[in-house]
C-alpha cells in the first residue's frame, strides 16, 4: 500500500508541475475583445488581466455608449480567455486551484 501511495504522490507532484507550466504559458498569451465594430478593443492576458485598452476617438462623443462598448469588449475578451484556458488545460483547469480570475 505504501508503494502505491508513494507512486500516487509522485504522480500528483508531476501533474501539479505540468499544470503550473501550462498556466505560465497561458499567462503569456493574449486575447483581444472588441465592440462597436472595433471602436473599442480590450486586450487581456491568459490570467484575465487587462494588458491594454484602445478607444477610437469617435467613440468618445457619447459617454454612455462608450461605457457600454467597454463593457462589451471586456466581456468578449474574458470569454476568449476562458475558451483559451479550456482548450489549453482541458480537464486540468479545475485541479490544484485552477486559474486566478477565470
Task: Please describe what this structure looks like.
The chain has helices at 2-28, 63-89, and strands at residues 30-35, 40-45, 50-55. It has 102 residues and is an alpha+beta fold. The protein has a single domain (2-97), classed as 2-Layer Sandwich (Ybab, Chain: A), CATH 3.30.1310.10. It has a three-stranded antiparallel β-sheet. Helix 1 runs antiparallel to helix 2. Residues 95-102 have low confidence and may be disordered.
Question: Helix proportion of residues, in percent?
Answer: 40-55%
What's the name of the CATH homologous superfamily? Nucleoid-associated protein YbaB-like domain
**Distance from first to last alpha carbon:** 37 Å
Number of DSSP strand runs? 3
Q: Any idea what the shape is?
A: rod-shaped
What is the CA-atom radius of gyration, in angstroms?
A: 19 Å
Alpha-beta content class: alpha+beta
* Strand arrangement across the biggest beta sheet: 1-2-3
Question: At the first level of CATH, what is the class?
Answer: Alpha Beta
Q: How much beta, percentage-wise?
A: 15-25%
Q: What's the gist of this structure?
A:
The chain contains two helices and three strands. It has helices spanning 2-28, 63-89, and strands at 30-35, 40-45, 50-55. Helix 1 packs antiparallel against helix 2.
Compile the SSE list and pairings:
Elements: H1 2-28, E1 30-35, E2 40-45, E3 50-55, H2 63-89
Antiparallel strand pairs: 1-2, 2-3
Helix pairs in contact: 1-2
Amino acid at each position: 500500500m505504501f508503494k502505491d501511495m508513494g507512486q500516487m504522490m509522485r504522480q500528483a507532484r508531476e501533474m501539479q508541475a505540468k499544470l503550473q507550466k501550462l498556466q505560465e504559458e497561458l499567462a503569456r498569451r493574449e486575447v483581444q475583445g472588441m465592440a462597436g465594430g472595433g471602436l473599442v478593443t480590450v486586450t487581456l492576458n491568459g490570467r484575465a488581466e487587462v494588458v491594454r485598452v484602445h478607444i477610437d476617438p469617435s467613440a468618445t462623443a457619447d459617454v454612455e455608449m462608450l461605457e457600454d462598448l467597454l463593457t462589451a469588449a471586456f466581456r468578449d475578451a474574458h470569454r476568449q480567455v476562458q475558451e483559451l484556458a479550456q482548450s489549453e488545460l482541458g480537464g486540468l483547469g479545475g485541479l490544484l486551484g485552477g486559474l486566478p480570475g477565470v
